[in-house]
Design brief:
2 helices, elongated, about 80 residues
């Protein structure tokens, strides 16, 4: 699973951890389009930002991309 961490505005003593669960796509595209969270909220709260990429999207395939969506491999594409 791919994830990104931005601690440029984080105060480890008082800042929260702001976790972005991502969407169905590449994690960088969501990071690049989430300025409200990465700039405004992180700066106001002095938060640590963690972006995660969903399994089966971006490059977070549990199997080779061409095999990941076969019935026997897509059983892991669940909320559990």
């Amino acid at each position: 699973m791919r994830y990104l961490v931005d601690d440029s505005k984080w105060d480890p003593e008082t800042g929260p951890i702001l976790f972005y669960a991502g969407n169905e796509g590449d994690v960088y595209s969501f990071l690049d389009n989430s300025g409200f969270m990465t700039e405004t909220i992180a700066e106001e709260t002095k938060g640590l930002i963690v972006f995660a990429e969903h399994r089966y999207f971006g490059v977070s395939y549990p199997f080779a991309p061409e095999d990941s969506f076969t019935p026997e491999h897509s059983i892991y594409l669940t909320v559990e």
